[in-house]
Amino acid sequence: MNAAIVAGERILEIYDSPFDSTLKDDGSPVTIADLASSSIIIDLLTSTEIPIIGEEKINLPFAERKDWSLNWCVDPLDGTKEFIKKNGEFAVNIALIEKHQAIFGLITEPCKGRMIAGGLGLGVHIWDYINDPEMTTVLTIQNSLKMDDSIVWIGSRSHPNFDKNWITRLEEAFVSVEKISKGSALKFFDLALEDAQIYPRFAPTMEWDIAAGHALLRELGGTIVSLETGKELEYNKESLFNPHFVAKTNAFLEREKKFSTLRPL
Q1: pLDDT per residue over 48-59, tens digit each?
Q2: Are residues 20 and 127 in the same domain?
Q3: Co-location of 95 and 135 in the same domain
Q4: What per-residue confidence (pLDDT) applies to 70?
Q5: Domain residues for 207?
Q6: Do 49 and 68 belong together in one domain?
């Protein structure tokens, strides 16, 4: 946790000063903040002797990774486009993967000094680590929505791609459907707090974009599944790209069970 907090402090120092951005080979932007945060986190996590996969590092080929029983999965600055726009919607993501499953995750929101963390058997906690570091709120599993047939789905701020047929199916299943947008893994705060119940993604993402959020959702009874296969996502794969997916809270899963007319989304 300290790694994410220290990295976030450095990110904010750069955020509040002039900085430039460049494009990586894949066309995505990178700033000195991405690189500085990555260096801080990797230096601190190296002491655990658990191997690391991360956005701003050279990752080992699958032949060398495939037998790992544990690994860290790190996005040192998730939402670089939002960072450049200076809208505050960026995060630091750290996840622990065990045998291809996300078992622990933490996400910090540096601009608000807020962190959410938890995982398998640990519960999920959220707190203001700047203003009230001793006070944490334990989140509980929401096993039912207000059964009024309304739903909130959350989408990306900078990647608004969505499948119209899929959205139509969602709208047909519920009386009221509201969409909200947010950058980076901060969407998982909304899912964990039940401010949104479902997050579909129809554009490319990498493992480090969602692994931490997946661990949090799993502990709260939710999941992230492939839109193609319906199977739960795995990590430390041969390809570090995720398939198109949908993240669902436990309350949404309960809603799916309740309404027989709602095919799994």
Answers
A1: 999 999 999 999
A2: yes
A3: yes
A4: 98
A5: 150-258
A6: yes
pLDDT digits (tens, 9 = 90+) for 83-92: 999 999 999 9
- Residue 170 lies inside a defined structural domain of this protein: yes
Structure confidence at residue 147 (pLDDT): 53
Residue 264 within a domain = no
Of 139, 171, 197, which residue sits at a domain end? 139
- Where residue 63 sits, what CATH number does that domain have? 3.30.540.10
- The total number of structural domains that make up the chain: 2
Over its C-alpha atoms, the chain yields an Rg (Å, rounded) of: 18
Three-state helix/strand/coil letters over the chain: CHHHHHHHHHHHHHHCCCCCEEECCCCCEEEHHHHHHHHHHHHHHHHHCCCEEECCCCCCCHHHHCCCCEEEEEEEEECHHHHHHCCCCCEEEEEEEECCEEEEEEEEECCCCEEEEEECCCEEEEEECCCCCCCEEEECCCCCCCCCCEEEEEEECCCCCCCHHHHHHHHHHCCEEEEEEECHHHHHHHHHCCCCCEEEECCCCEHHHHHHHHHHHHHCCCEEEECCCCCECCCCCCCCECCCEEEECHHHHHHHHHCCCCCCC
144: in domain: no
The whole-number mean pLDDT for each consecutive block of 10 residues of the chain, a chain of 265 residues, reads 94 96 92 98 97 97 97 98 96 98 98 96 94 85 64 86 83 88 97 94 95 98 95 98 96 78 54
